[in-house]
What we know:
The protein is α+β, with helices and mostly antiparallel strands. It is built from 15 helices and 16 strands.
Amino acid sequence: MFRLTTLLLVTLTGVSLAQPKISREDKLKLDRKKVEAEGFWIYNDLSKGFAEAKKSGKPMLVVLRCVPCVECVKLDDDLVDQDPIIRPLLDKFVCVRVVSTNGLDLSLFQFDTDQSFAVFMLNADGTIYGRFGTRSHRTNWITDVSLPGMAKALQGALDLHGNYPKNKDSLAAKRGPAPLFASPEKYPSLAPKYGPKLAEIGNVFQSCIHCHQIGDAQKTYYRAKKEPIPESVLFPYPHPKTLGLIFNPKEAATLESVVAGSIAEKAGLKAGDVILKLDGQPLVSIADVQWVLHNTSGEGGKLLAQVQRSSKSEEITLTLPAGWRRSGDLSWRSSTWGMRRMATGGILLEDVTEADRTKLGLAKDAMALRAKHVGQFGPHAAAKNAGFLVGDVIVEFDGKTDLTSESAVIVHGVTKLKPGDKVPVTILRGGKKMTLTLPMQE
């Protein structure tokens, strides 16, 4: 099911193994050959999976994973398939491996598209029991997922399946609203290039719609219409850390700690609390928490949590202030690169260190973002063509001096500005202040 990265090998065995170089196309073909030869997983055929689940009465386990994406791998297939706890649980599911999103039913399979690994546990009638797969960093996943955590999620889904359909009403909200388009290839920016199926011959990899391309297509859709990109699209699937919730990755939804001064602490949540339900939805993993947060308004509101503390069950209300989503981190997301094209003309920004602020005569709280990289080609070269250079320090953007992070600049660019706008940007270069004009793009 999954390929093992060097990081995981080092973590689990203390042995570092060199990975032979192999093309993405060959990875995809070899992966299919291996999976089909083993015969345990249904390969890239959801219709067959639903039919078998309906016939057998088993729940379905659907894994969405981009095979070629090595740096995004979470768990290794051999470890999962051979794990003495997980393997017996897998036998209780109809297991389907999906390696591309071409033709994927987006009314059913809704997930954080910046991840290349997402798991759905569901009934043959489309009722979702839960999700698994969480990510808060480009490469570091250890604090988010684990084999024990996956086992807890699988068992939780089996428990819900055993009580189905009595619990159907409590599971209804695990499916989201109607998507913008029924499947990825119907998005205007993807339609000219992709079809509803992965190619069987030829360049299979090039025919594949990757998970992150769905998120890119969503943002491009709003941008092309010259509409602000909604916060739920800008900050999708907020990590629980946004509320100060630090979960134990080896459990379903057990708090390892609570950040001091956070929304969670103010609500009264404590380390050791087990969150059984959030907004009325039963939880089998941290990903289920993210699903609830994703569907909670960024304008603020209240979330009711059913918590088990020691042997007692109690209800705790979390109060979310307006703009709570914006404290989330955008930098790890691959879709941020597309938004850099829109808002910064292809500039990758980084915070200026305190020492450099002193040299530049800038206050600690002043806006100071250095151009770490300036795109060189195509639409990502808009800033370069406007005269920006690596090392330039932005101190004012569109007349604002309070955009003190790259995320803040990007959010301003894609919510307050439109393609075609000409934005004045004040920079420091070689100790001198100058103003350049940056064009906003689709």
